[in-house]
C-alpha cells in the first residue's frame, strides 16, 4: 500500500504543470517576439549605433537607436472646392 501512495504522489507531483525546459522555451519565444516588435534583431553583438533591448536566448536583442516610424502617404485626394463658370463649357479645353 505504501508503494501505491508513493507512486501516486510521484505521478501527481510530476504531472502538475509543464516541464522546466518547456517554460524556458516559451520564455525565449516571448523575448524574441518582443525583440521583433521593437524592430530589433537577435545578434551575437550590437554595433555602436544600436542598443541592447533585452536578451534573446543567449544573444542580445539589438535595436537601432533612432527608429523613425514610416509615414503613410495618402494616395487619394478629395476635392473640396468645385468651380463652375457659366462662361466655360464642361468639356472645353482652355
From TrEMBL:
Cell location: Secreted
Entry keyword set: Antibiotic, Antimicrobial, Defensin, Disulfide bond, Secreted, Signal
Taxonomy of the source species: Eukaryota, Metazoa, Chordata, Craniata, Vertebrata
Free-text function comment from the UniProt entry: Has antibacterial activity.
Presence of keyword Iron-sulfur: no
Record bears the keyword Ribonucleoprotein: no
GO cellular component: extracellular region
Stretches of the chain forming a coiled coil according to its record: none
Domain Beta-defensin: 34-62
Gene responsible for this protein: DEFB113
Signal sequence region: 1-16
Protein's name in the database: Beta-defensin
Annotated InterPro entries: Beta_defensin_dom
Entry's family note: Belongs to the beta-defensin family.
Main location: secreted
GO biological process terms held by the UniProt record: defense response to bacterium; innate immune response
